[in-house]
TrEMBL record, chain B:
Record protein name field: PTS system IIB component (Gat family)
GO molecular function terms attached to this record: protein-N(PI)-phosphohistidine-sugar phosphotransferase activity
Domain of life: Bacteria
PTS EIIB type-2 domain location: 2-94
One GO term of the biological process aspect: phosphoenolpyruvate-dependent sugar phosphotransferase system
Pfam families: PTS_IIB
Record keywords, A-Z: Transferase
Length: 149, 94
């Protein structure tokens, strides 16, 4: 599994989840992966259906929205210098300190859903989550993703 | 045949992940023949929730259907999977 280099942001300094979502959403918009309005749609959806996952040792978030906002199925990645709070997925109303964000631009194409399935496998291993927060360049990230999926 | 519904906010992302894992679990427990899986988004199902025997959701659901829905997030985080499957099994066997 590999992510496009231009859709990877490492050690992002952000003070809120909105900031992270805008940075990643802008990347996806600039590269023609998603339609105008994708960011607003993700922000709105995050309010209704939050995507923070309380994984160990840090939380992971997988923001996304409906497939009709998406041209190409791709995934953008950010590791955060300092954690930001996302609301937890599900009904718990907890807040999660997130250091890893995979922004999913997904339509229903099967390949990308397989990828999501593999990603979720990664999050369940604390060692891998730790490694994801520490990668220093895109190649290292892709090598890590390839070795684990 | 029991009807098991898996829902998320969009009906394509996390529900697909949960579906894959539940299918494996059903197979391992020799329950594949007893359960049929449906996948959907919450907003499409609110009006017909009583059609299903077991419901797993990765997202918040309205209060009026809350009691019928099992939280599927453990399958995404890896935390609390066993107790979640206990609830699913109880509903299948009910």
């Amino acid at each position: 599994m590999k992510l496009d280099k231009e859709l990877i942001v490492l050690n992002l300094e952000a003070s809120s989840k909105e900031e992270v979502l805008e940075v990643l959403g802008n990347l996806l918009t600039e590269h023609g992966v998603v339609k105008e309005g994708f960011i607003e749609s993700v922000l709105q959806r995050e309010k209704e259906f939050p995507t923070g996952l309380p994984t160990e040792p840090f939380g992971v978030a997988i923001p996304h929205t409906d497939g009709d906002m998406v041209h190409d199925s791709k995934i953008a990645f950010a590791s955060l210098k300092n954690p930001v709070k996302f609301a937890a997925m599900g009904g718990s109303a907890e807040l999660v300190d997130v250091k890893i964000v995979f922004m999913l631009a997904l339509n229903s194409s099967q390949g990308q859903l397989d990828m999501l399935q593999k990603l979720v496998g990664l999050f369940q291993d604390p060692g891998t989550v730790e490694q994801l927060t520490a990668v220093s360049d895109a190649d290292q990230l892709n090598r890590l993703l390839e070795s684990k999926t | 045949m029991k009807k098991l519904l898996i829902m998320c906010g969009t009906g394509i992302a996390t529900s697909t992940v949960v579906k894959g894992k539940v299918e494996e679990w059903l197979k391992e427990n020799n329950l594949s023949q007893e359960v049929k899986i449906y996948q959907s988004k919450v907003s499409d199902e609110i009006g017909r929730i009583d059609d299903y025997d077991v419901i797993l959701s990765t997202t918040l659901v309205p209060n009026n259907i809350k009691d019928k829905v099992i939280d599927g997030v453990p399958l995404l985080t890896g935390i609390g999977i066993e107790s979640m499957y206990e609830k699913v099994l109880a509903e299948i066997k009910r």
